[in-house]
Amino acid sequence: NMATSSNYWEDLRKQARQLENELDLKLVSFSKLCTSYSSSSNWDQQKRDIRSDSGSTQDNVLIAMTTELEQLLANLTAVNDKMAEYTNTPGVSSHNAALMHTLQRHRDILQDYTHEFHKTKSNFFSLREREDLLGSVHRDIDSSGVNNRKTELFLKEHEHLRNIAMATKENITFQRGMLKSIQTRVTTLANRFPAINSLIQKINLRKRRDSLILGGVIGVCTILLLLYTFH
């Protein structure tokens, strides 16, 4: 009957107003959070790292609000559809100006809220994508800087060890020349004075010992160079 039909219409209007009021409040909060998110885009690198490692609480809140607003908009759309169906119900005049005007007003409110939501949501995801990109760029720059410093230190140390090795090589070459010259002279003396043979043997023993020591130094330098090369 008409009374029941009228009550149904008023119930739909009541549901629509409740959803619209809830949407209005939550859209304001959503917009404020997104504005706060935008103002935080100038964080320093340490805060970016914290956000990247542990996740942002602000991100989680905004994503939760996005889901909630989408559900509220879907509910309000469903109510509007029921109101439109009501105006087409037999016995309800489609020319009832008051009903059509009310339905159109609720449709306009739904359209405005939907537009505002999608605009704010788009800004939020754009800001988050930009922040993630900036954080990634800063981490790459810092990582590159660390690698460059490590490379510079390695090259300096490598050059230092190479200079030691070259100096050791030159020293060995010089000592070999001296030993060869001494050996030649001693051999000449030994040919003239057989009693010097024992002295020659002692000199040969010392020469072998010096060679072993120098060889050990070369080996240590070589190992150090290999360690720094493959570190």
List the helices and strands and how they pair.
Blueprint: H1 2-39, H2 45-54, H3 57-87, H4 97-192, H5 197-229
Helix pairs in contact: 1-3, 1-4, 2-4, 3-4, 4-5
Quick description:
With 231 residues, the protein is mainly alpha-helical. It folds into 2 domains: 1-44 and 52-192, no CATH class; 197-230.
Molecular structure report:
With 231 residues, the chain is mainly alpha-helical. The chain folds into two domains: 185 residues, no CATH class; 34 residues. It is 90% helix and 0% strand. It has five helices and no strands. The chain is rod-shaped, with a radius of gyration of 44 Å. The termini are far apart. InterPro entries: Golgi_SNAP_su1 (IPR023601).
